[in-house]
């Protein structure tokens, strides 16, 4: 990552939010495609050595993305994004939850709402992810589970993918 590109992770317990800001040296259209097409998401949306595997995706308001993060030994950890709003190439909101392979949400784990925005910065793109949880305890739980390290490693995968697409 170039040293002048933004890269931050802030947990705000009072607001029950995590805000991630990550700037990429790639055009907005390309970054948007990487967030909205399952074949591209499968190439980056997991921290190494995990990989992502899409079971189904319907990128539209009311649609969902059901996928697994697959460990090197084949264990699958399922998640589900339910898309609420989509503003093409500018952002989307979605509910994010741990699930089973059929998409049934695990209510014993934190559920969050993601607001993802894409800001065109000439030849660069700033992605901001504001993740809102029901409580500060839920934020603490995902932070303790390694959310900061995981999201930074995942976004590093996206950076590598974008370099191959340029």
From TrEMBL:
Residues 25-163 form the Activator of Hsp90 ATPase homologue 1/2-like C-terminal domain. Coiled coil: none annotated. InterPro entries: ASHA1/2-like_C, START-like_dom_sf. Belongs to the AHA1 family. This is SRPBCC domain-containing protein. It comes from Maritimibacter harenae. The lineage of its organism: Bacteria, Pseudomonadati, Pseudomonadota, Alphaproteobacteria, Rhodobacterales.
């Amino acid at each position: 990552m170039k040293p002048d590109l933004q890269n931050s992770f802030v947990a705000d317990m009072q607001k029950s939010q995590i805000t991630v800001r990550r700037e990429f040296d790639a055009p907005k259209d390309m970054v948007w495609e990487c967030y909205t097409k399952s074949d591209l998401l499968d190439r980056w949306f997991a921290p190494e050595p995990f990989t992502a595997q899409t079971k189904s995706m319907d990128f539209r308001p009311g649609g969902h993305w059901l996928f697994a993060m697959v460990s090197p030994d084949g264990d699958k950890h399922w998640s589900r994004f339910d898309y609420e709003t989509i503003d093409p190439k500018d952002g989307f909101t979605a509910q994010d939850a741990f699930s089973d392979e059929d998409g049934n949400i695990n209510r014993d784990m934190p559920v969050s709402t993601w607001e993802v925005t894409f800001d065109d910065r000439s030849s660069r793109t700033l992605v901001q992810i504001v993740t809102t949880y029901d409580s500060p305890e839920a934020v603490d739980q995902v932070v303790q589970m390694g959310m900061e390290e995981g999201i930074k490693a995942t976004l590093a995968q996206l950076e590598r993918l974008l370099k191959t697409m340029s």
